[in-house]
Design goal:
With 171 residues, this protein is α+β, with helices and mostly antiparallel strands. It is built from 2 helices and 5 strands.
Length: 171
């Protein structure tokens, strides 16, 4: 809504840029404002009074329209802000769920590719420590740390077999 600086009704004009207490209403020969009014003759006073009442009514209507437009704009902005907040909230929830699923997947993969082989090699080492040399050592062909650990377990097994052979020869 566009608000004009001056409200004009016939001979009446009001400067809307001034605060309401400083408004000056000019009606042809009549000028009224903070400093009082010069109404002219008694007959003119009734005419001017009608014009002033009309201008006051128009000014009040204009102010009501401005207030209503401002309220509508404020309500629309509030609704838009609430909708944006809801959308951001759902986006945060969705991204949080996706990240949780992603991290759980990574943990599961890490558990299967790292945790399980280490557990099996640990079990093989315990069996070797108990003297069982007839077991197969898994993951010797891997090129990572798990493969290194499996190869170390294989060396341990080979040393146990070699020591058993030396003991058998000494008997």
């Amino acid at each position: 809504m566009k608000i004009n600086r001056y409200l004009k009704l016939g001979d009446l004009s009001v400067d809307l840029q001034q605060p309401p207490l400083l408004w000056q209403v000019e009606l042809g020969p009549l000028r009224m404002g903070m400093y009082g009014a010069d109404w002219g003759s008694a007959g003119d006073a009734a005419i001017w009074k009608d014009r002033v009442n009309t201008a006051e009514h128009a000014a009040r209507q204009l102010l009501d329209d401005v207030a209503q437009a401002a309220t509508e704009l404020s309500d629309r902005a509030t609704r838009d802000a609430i909708a944006g907040t809801r959308q951001a909230e759902w986006l945060r929830i969705a991204l949080g769920a996706i990240m949780t699923i992603l991290f759980l997947g990574i943990a599961l993969i890490a558990s299967r590719t790292i945790g399980r082989p280490i557990q099996q090699i640990g079990s093989v080492l315990l069996q070797l420590a108990r003297g069982r040399t007839d077991i197969r050592i898994p993951y010797v062909d891997r090129g990572d740390e798990i493969g290194d650990t499996a190869r170390a377990a294989s060396v341990f097994k080979d040393n146990l077999l070699h020591m058993a052979q030396i003991e058998a020869e000494q008997k």
